[in-house]
Specification:
The chain is mostly helical and 240 residues long. It contains 13 helices and no strands. Helix 9 packs parallel to helix 11. The N terminus and C terminus are likely disordered. Keywords: Repeat, TPR repeat.
């Protein structure tokens, strides 16, 4: 350790030149620029918001979105995202306020109509939910999430055939949400009494859902529910 200190003192005067006045000003300007860069960018904040949301820290995400909206008071995307966080914590009034603001700022933001539809659905206003899903699909007919949500809501309204048809349309758009689509179609078929079709759809859903996916547990419960009476009946028949 002593050798290191000695060597530094021995050579430091020859290695470090004394900056001129103009060089000092340049260094100060460079340092000021670096300090400004330390302030988190809008993009960086959105990355943090997504991380907090993925971890279920919705209140933290809301707090960061508050700061972002203070910076960008006309950002429809940020109002929509904050509304989604409020929806996650079941603060439907505040969620609705944010979705309305997002739509007022950007009437073509299909995601905001979808989320507002979900908010209405959670409140039990299914007809208003359908109305918002229809508006979202008018803007972007390739939004797969909207088709899925509309199918679920139609099922809640008791229109099983139309729910199946809607989920079929969702399936045609792409493969991203196939696990969820098969699961929801399976549950719809279960409610219709088509248990064999339901079991088939549940198994397809599980084949698409990655291990540990939050939807996986839900589908496994649905599958167990439909298999239980089938297994019981099979056991009774084997006893005889």
């Amino acid at each position: 350790m002593k050798d290191d200190i000695t060597n530094y003192k021995k050579h430091s005067s020859s290695l470090v030149p004394i900056p001129s006045v103009s060089e000092e000003e340049s260094i100060k300007a460079a340092m000021a620029t670096q300090l400004k860069k330390k302030e988190l960018s809008d993009l960086h904040l959105r990355i943090i918001i997504k991380q907090e949301a993925n971890q279920g820290n919705y209140q933290k995400a809301i707090a960061i979105l508050d700061k972002l909206i203070a910076r960008l008071p006309n950002s429809a995307i940020d109002y929509n995202n904050r509304g989604l966080m409020y929806l996650k914590i079941a603060d439907y009034d505040q969620a609705m306020t944010d979705f309305n603001k997002a739509i007022a700022l950007s009437p073509s933001l299909d995601r905001a109509y979808n989320n507002r539809g979900n908010c209405y659905a959670h409140q039990g206003n299914l007809s208003k939910a359908i109305e918002n899903y229809e508006k979202a699909l008018d803007i972007n007919p390739y939004n797969q999430k909207v088709w899925i949500n509309q199918g679920i809501t139609l099922r809640e309204l008791g229109d099983y055939p139309l729910a199946i048809e809607t989920l079929e349309l969702a399936k045609m758009i792409g493969n991203q949400y196939l696990g969820r689509i098969y699961a929801e179609r399976g549950y719809t078929r279960y409610l219709m009494g088509d248990w064999n079709y339901a079991i088939s759809d549940y198994r397809r859903a599980l084949s698409y859902l990655p291990e540990g996916h939050r939807y996986q547990q839900k589908v496994m419960k649905w599958l167990a529910k439909v298999l239980k009476p089938v297994i019981s009946q099979s056991n009774l028949e084997s006893d005889h």
